[in-house]
């Protein structure tokens, strides 16, 4: 496998990972993910971010290095923008092979490198915002810390001769690349796939750090950027502003801004709650609001988080189970809370058999989420005709409400 040229002396080396493993041990990636690593060659050579030993990635990267005449033992610098093991898992090995390479990372990154990989103080050069590294031959790197996007030690690396931003997880995405690594070689029709996978990545990984994302984007605004080269997903050289705009919108979804859409999540043991699902959907359909329907536990929470993150409205249908919520729904709601999906218009309903309990647990859980609860209503056993009519009414009501959410952000 050959390295792919980004510009003179700068190459992508990386791997499209296809695996049944879960990303971070929790998020399914049926369409894969890329681990992007980069080589910058001046008189000295630096590798920016590594891979982990996953899907054969190190083998690809080694052969890609060799395709541009670099043996790992010749590396002068290993730059670690971020210490999460998807980018550092291979550090153990590279540290042994590239015996002369200096490892560059932030102060917090250095602490992690020592803790995770048993590195010594003398193996590492600590860098901070504004520090530069002259590789010779006109290649010059500048470092900028972007803490908490999404780990506290995170930084980006900027190459000044090509105006390339190596942004690590910022501007990253799930999903293996189809055909090309560059945005300007992707057919427009494929962008739906990339956007969905970027949104899902954002909601799963970066969402709770949205304030830091906006700070980072603000900070990087002073750079002239011709190319964004993240550690996952497409390399943006045609329209880098496109991925920046996506990330700005996603970060703003954590505030009082959302798409006029509803994410509708339901679970039912014996079909009673399910009958109400159909009634509520009937009501929503009257307002022609797009609805993303998920059935728990069958549908994975990773996808629910993606759609819920951008939707103005959330609807939950779940029965009472042992005096509490139907358990798979509790998991969904706990993750929505952990990822800080806030400022939503919300409706909940469900069936119970004797004294209920789901309603109470739900109300307690959502107290701190700034969710605007239209109603949380329970019915005993099968819904009556009257219950179903109420469901239709409430469906229409929440659909009307989501249409009133602000569409613009500053
Ligand atoms: C395992 C199990 C636990 C239940 N626990 C409760 C409960 O604590 N309180 C209650 O009122 N009903 C309880 N029920 C009754 C259900 O809430 C009731 O059957 C309801 O109609 C189920 O809705 P569904 O048909 O949408 O699954 C339980 C039912 C099952 C199967
Ligand atoms: Fe990460
Ligand atoms: Fe990552």
Q: How would you characterize this protein structure?
A:
The protein is α/β, with parallel strands linked by helices and 410 residues long. It has 2 domains: 4-252, Ribonuclease Z/Hydroxyacylglutathione hydrolase-like (Metallo-beta-lactamase, Chain A, 4-Layer Sandwich); 259-399, Rossmann fold, CATH 3.40.50.360. Helix content is 33%, strand content 26%. The chain contains 12 helices and 21 strands. The protein has helices spanning 57-67, 85-88, 91-97, 107-117, 191-206, 210-220, 240-252, 272-285, 301-310, 327-338, 358-366, 385-402, and strands spanning 4-7, 10-17, 22-23, 27-28, 33-41, 45-48, 77-79, 102-105, 124-126, 132-136, 139-145, 155-159, 164-168, 227-230, 259-266, 291-295, 311-317, 320-321, 324-325, 345-352, 372-380. A 7-stranded mixed β-sheet has the order 1-2-5-6-7-8-9. It has a 5-stranded mixed β-sheet with strand order 10-11-12-13-14, with no helix packed on it. Helix 5 packs across helix 9 (301-310), helix 6 (210-220) packs antiparallel against helix 7 (240-252) and helix 9 (301-310) packs across helix 10 (327-338). The chain starts with a strand and ends in an 8-residue tail after the last helix. The mean pLDDT is 96. It binds flavin mononucleotide and fe (ii) ion (2 copies). Residues 84, 86-87, 169, 231-232 line the site of one fe (ii) ion. Flavin mononucleotide (FMN) binds at residues 268-274, 319-323, 351-357, 381.
